[in-house]
């Protein structure tokens, strides 16, 4: 840590950071466009100009390291004039699209124009007009809005490892465009739109869906794989609309892949809201009663899955099954949370964020000890041999080789497993309650409740609690007159 002066006030800041990040930590914001903490520094936008005591010219804060005793000025007349001039140049050709632009409300150009702009333009010529293009399978570029910050080009080259985009022409004619004949088709088109500070890059999947100020936002963790990227959920009318990156400087989390970002429809559609018997709607009373009877009659029971659930739900569920086992006279209940090959191996990356394990809480389940030595193959073989005659499947597919007639499914959606199982119970999705996931590195991360479950819909632990209550239910003997 070193001491520096910011606008005459002394602060202690991290010497390893540049001025933009260091000042932000102490509550002083320096405006910028092209800078990103996880990308190389290019100093293209000239928005972050500041004065440094003893240096005659204005300097770019993004490219200036912190030094002991440094004195900087962020609000002088010179600095304000320079930033206003930068904004005037950037807005010379930028269209007044805010009423129809999807970036409105979270646009850095809007923020900086309001905070540092002059309020009027001296540009009297016609703005340039370049047709919008589809440059990816889920990516649109609006050249008129682009301010050539070069963030998208740097992100692709430095993080994705591809060079699909480039800067073409010069001066007033400069545009960002495709450097290849094929459209972009990688797993980070959402991230390209996300890091664009203006509304130049947009995704087809979210285009014109909602205004950002209509959302209710909560801190959460991506469910798409075992990486556990930090996200902000955007919910409207109790439906999940978007995942947006929630930057975590300490863990180096700044991006989100498309698989996690856009895998949201299942939260809003095809939900399982009724108990099922042989694929047909039934009542909770009938299904819970039959599950209890099946557990009493079973020789041995297996539970498969659970790595989609939070640590808190798994802990409650483990206690619930232990109580059930004791109530059944110590009957064996084996639980294997690892149902895929990827869960049984060391973490394998698909790309720089996405892993092959599409469960957000495999590590949490393993740490809790809900695994077997024989693995899922051992349980399947035991079911085939008849040693296990009842299997609970928690939000997973029914493994090949297991007779669906022996299966009881707990699921959030009307899946093939729920339809084919002998009995099925609806459960909450993780976003309908608060909790935590443990990612591939063993980092336990909390998430907030983002959505409200429909009345009566329980967590999987809540359903097992109902089963336990049914097992311990005492039937009163009727007494009549003699």
From TrEMBL:
SMART domains: Molybdop_Fe4S4, NADH-G_4Fe-4S_3. The keyword Metal-binding applies. Its cofactor is [4Fe-4S] cluster; [2Fe-2S] cluster. Pfam families: Fer2_4 (PF13510), Fer4_Nqo3 (PF22117), Molybdop_Fe4S4 (PF04879), NADH-G_4Fe-4S_3 (PF10588). Coiled coil: none annotated. One of its GO terms (biological process) is ATP synthesis coupled electron transport. Residues 215-271 form the 4Fe-4S Mo/W bis-MGD-type domain. PANTHER family: NADH-QUINONE OXIDOREDUCTASE SUBUNIT G (PTHR43105:SF10), RESPIRATORY NITRATE REDUCTASE (PTHR43105). GO terms for cellular component: membrane. SUPFAM superfamilies: 2Fe-2S ferredoxin-like, 4Fe-4S ferredoxins, Formate dehydrogenase/DMSO reductase, domains 1-3. Belongs to the complex I 75 kDa subunit family. Residues 78-117 form the 4Fe-4S His(Cys)3-ligated-type domain. GO terms for molecular function: 2 iron, 2 sulfur cluster binding; 4 iron, 4 sulfur cluster binding; metal ion binding; NADH dehydrogenase (ubiquinone) activity; NADH dehydrogenase activity; quinone binding. This is NADH-quinone oxidoreductase subunit G. Keywords: 2Fe-2S, 4Fe-4S, Iron, Iron-sulfur, Metal-binding, NAD, Quinone, Translocase.
């Amino acid at each position: 840590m070193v001491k520096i002066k910011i606008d005459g006030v002394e602060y202690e800041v991290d010497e390893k950071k540049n001025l933009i990040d260091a000042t932000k930590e102490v509550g002083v914001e320096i405006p910028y466009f092209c800078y990103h903490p996880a990308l190389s520094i290019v100093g293209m936008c000239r928005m972050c100009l500041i004065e440094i005591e003893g240096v005659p010219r204005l300097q770019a804060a993004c490219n200036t390291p912190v030094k002991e005793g440094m004195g900087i000025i962020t609000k002088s007349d010179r600095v304000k004039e320079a930033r206003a001039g930068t904004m005037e140049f950037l807005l010379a050709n930028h269209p007044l699209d805010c009423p129809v632009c999807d970036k409105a409300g979270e646009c850095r150009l809007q923020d900086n124009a309001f905070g540092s702009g002059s309020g009027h333009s001296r540009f009297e010529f016609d703005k340039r007009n370049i047709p919008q293009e589809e440059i990816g399978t889920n990516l649109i570029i609006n050249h008129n809005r682009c301010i050539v910050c070069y963030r998208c080009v740097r992100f692709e080259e430095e993080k994705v490892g591809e060079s699909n985009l480039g800067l073409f022409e010069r001066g007033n004619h400069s545009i960002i465009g495709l450097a290849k004949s094929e459209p972009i088709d990688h797993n980070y088109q959402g991230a390209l739109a996300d890091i664009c500070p203006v509304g130049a890059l947009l995704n087809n999947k979210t285009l014109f869906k909602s205004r950002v100020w209509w959302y209710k936002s909560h801190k959460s963790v991506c469910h798409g794989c075992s990486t556990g990227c930090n996200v902000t959920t955007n919910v409207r009318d109790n439906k999940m609309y978007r995942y947006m990156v929630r930057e975590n400087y300490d863990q180096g989390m700044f991006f989100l892949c498309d698989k996690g970002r856009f895998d949201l429809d299942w939260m809003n559609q095809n939900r399982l809201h009724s108990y099922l018997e042989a694929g047909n709607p039934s009542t909770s009373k009938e299904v819970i009663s039959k599950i209890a009877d099946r557990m009493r009659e079973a020789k041995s029971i297996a539970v498969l899955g659970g790595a989609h659930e939070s640590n808190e739900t798994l802990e409650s569920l483990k206690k619930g099954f232990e109580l059930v086992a004791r109530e059944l006279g110590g009957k064996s209940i084996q639980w294997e949370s690892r149902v895929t090959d990827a869960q049984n191996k060391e973490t394998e990356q698909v790309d720089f964020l996405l892993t092959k394990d599409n469960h957000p809480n495999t590590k949490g389940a393993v740490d809790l000890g809900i695994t077997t030595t024989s693995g899922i193959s051992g349980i399947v073989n035991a079911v085939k041999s008849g040693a296990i005659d009842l299997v609970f499947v928690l939000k997973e597919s029914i493994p090949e080789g297991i007779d669906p007639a022996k299966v009881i499914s707990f699921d959030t959606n009307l899946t093939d497993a729920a339809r084919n199982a002998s009995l099925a119970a609806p459960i909450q999705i993780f976003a309908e309650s608060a909790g935590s996931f443990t990612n591939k590195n063993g980092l336990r991360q909390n998430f907030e409740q983002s959505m409200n479950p429909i009345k009566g819909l329980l967590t999987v632990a809540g359903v097992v609690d109902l089963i336990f209550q049914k097992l311990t239910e005492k039937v009163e003997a009727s007494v009549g007159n003699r």
